[in-house]
Fold:
Amino acid sequence: SQQGEEDPQALSIQEGENATMNCSYKTSINNLQWYRQNSGRGLVHLILIRSNEREKHSGRLRVTLDTSKKSSSLLITASRAADTASYFCATNNAGNMLTFGGGTRLMVKP
Amino acid sequence: NAGVMQNPRHLVRRRGQEARLRCSPMKGHSHVYWYRQLPEEGLKFMVYLQKENIIDESGMPKERFSAEFPKEGPSILRIQQVVRGDSAAYFCASSLLDRQGETQYFGPGTRLLVL
Structure:
């Protein structure tokens, strides 16, 4: 099974609402990253949180990390239709290779 | 400053043919990673290469798949005798350094369809 598993698998919200996506992983990590993928496109790096950090912000994004529960969450505030995409967490535990979860497909309705 | 480039963007092959996927990393990047994405799934690591060296191929199928990153030119992922199960999107990423947490920049992917 994959190192990272996102929850929910799909999320549909109205523009302006907040979107929360969760990620759980199994082994110890050095850092956890969140990526975004628009349909049919490559991945775009959003944010990285290190294992000794608990929370990080970047614009409308807020990421938390709980190493005791081996989980992370990505919060997108005041969502926009342009935020519609798939969001993946990825862990980095050996070398620089990334282990991805299955993704959350977010749809933001205008 | 061009990003990671991959070509072709779409590739159709019949069973038994060979597929060659190319990746040109960002300028100055010497670390290349290949990932495969099946429909509705996340990306799975395949292989990590530096110039003229395969560093980690733990995610690569043992047969029919090979990768190289020559001193000059793009990195190549080669799939011989393709089967329908090889249909997927193949993404290449590059990074400046190989330390943990170094941002990987992804290309747009090559979508392989095996008929």
In short: The longest strand of chain A covers residues 43-50. Chain A has a mean pLDDT of 90.
